[in-house]
Structures are given as structure tokens and as C-alpha cells.
Amino acid sequence: MKITLLGTGTSVGIPSLGQLGWGKCNPQNPKNNRQRCAVLIQSNNTNILIDAGPDIKNQLIGHNLPSLDGIIITHEHADHISGLDELRPFYFPKQEKINIYTVERTANFLSTRFDYLFNKNEKSQSYFKPPMNLNIINYYDEINFNDIHIKTIKQHHGVIDTIGLIINDKFAYCTDVVDFPDDSFNKLKNLDTLVITGLRSTPHIAHAHFDLTFSWINKLKPKKAYLTHLSPDSDHDSVLSICPDNVEPAYDNLYFNI
Ligand SMILES: [Zn+2]
Ligand SMILES: [Zn+2]
Description:
Blueprint: E1 2-7, E2 38-42, E3 47-50, H1 56-61, E4 70-72, H2 78-81, E5 98-102, H3 104-113, H4 115-118, E6 132-136, E7 142-145, E8 148-157, E9 160-167, E10 171-174, H5 182-187, E11 193-197, H6 210-220, E12 224-228, H7 236-242, E13 247-249, E14 254-257
Parallel strand pairs: 3-4, 4-5, 5-6, 10-11, 11-12, 12-13
Antiparallel strand pairs: 1-2, 1-14, 2-3, 7-8, 8-9, 9-10
The chain binds zinc ion (ZN) (2 copies).
The site of one zinc ion (ZN) has 4 residues, from loops.
């Protein structure tokens, strides 16, 4: 089973528009070019996407996926949902609705912002068919897609909670998190691979900063950990130089097998 980190940047990406640009990141290092966070999980016959931010078309186009078997949305922030509309072509061949999985709060947000993806109304063109279906899950639910087994956990992300995911009891993806309920944290212990928020050096109200992330990793003891959702303050090589032995900053299109 192949895991690909399609994007590893914070909400504005790196480089960002405007004066922020590359921030403190070295533009000469391709690993500093970071699109918005998303993950592709692929087994022999199943493709699952986690999040669909504004870069999602360009992130997926080179993977030549014939279909998507499910999309899990971790939370409703724009950097995780703005590209949802771009996934409509997966509906076209068989006119089978694309299944979105998320918690009720995020589902309500999506059905307001992207009403046309889920509902036909009096302003819809006559030929139009809504291409997506919302499936509401609860934190700690488990979802199976053929041989891909996903356990969900609750994570704290400032004023909202987000979904963390544990795949086949080997790999966990924990983005947009600043604190964990104990029930969630305990499920993350002793995994093979952990991909987890490491925004920048200084504390942030909604995202773990490096020291906090390193302290979690020290307790969770994954064999390997990668930092994601990096900010323009976080130059790849500078971050790598402060990482413990089994930790490194992720980068776009990093992949590994589980
Ligand atoms: Zn985010
Ligand atoms: Zn967020």
C-alpha cells in the first residue's frame, strides 16, 4: 500500500502570494516548494484521498487515477476543502457519486459552501447531476475501503476539532492539531510511520510547533516521523538540522509503503 504526501505546506502554501513569498525558506531547494496538505492512499485496486485543498487538481493529475473510492475531509478550513469541486470528473464515467466522509459539523459547512455538489435546486441546469454524496461519521469511527482500514481519532485544532487517521494500524496522519484527547493520543503509540503537524519554531494557537511535536513523538515512539503543514518560516534544511534522529520534515510527493 502506497502513501503519497501530495502537499505539506501551511494554508497559504510556499511560496505564498504577496510579500510573504518564500518567507525564510531557501527558494533554491525544491523541497521548500509546498502545496496545501493532502494525502493519497493507494492499494492495488483502491484509491482514497485525504483532503482536497486549492492545489488538488495539480497534485493528482500526474497520478492518472481512474477513480477515487472515497475522500475523507479532516476539517472545513479552506486549505483542506477549497478544491473539492475539482474532483467532479471522477463522477463522469459511470455517474457514480463520489463519497465524502467527514464529521457532521464539517459536512454542514460543505453542504452550504458547495451546495451544488450535493443537491440539485431550481437554479441548476437541466442536465446537471450533483456528483458527490456526504457520509457523516463520528470521531473514533472505523471505515473500511476494501483492504484499506481506517481508524479515525479526534484532535484539537484551536476552536475546532479535526479528524486524525490511522491506516491499517501502521501509519497515522495527524494534521492541523495542537492537542489530543488522551483516547486519541494513546492510539498513536508505537506505529511504523507518523505524519504530524510541525508548523514552525514558535507556538501557535491551532498548530503544534516543533518542540511540542517533538515531545509528542518522544512519547509516541513511531519508527519514523515526518513533519507536515510547514509554514514559510520553516526552511527544510533548517528544520532538518533540529530534528531528532527518526524525524524529518516531509516534502511534497514524498511517498512510502506500509
Ligand atoms: Zn490546514
Ligand atoms: Zn486547519
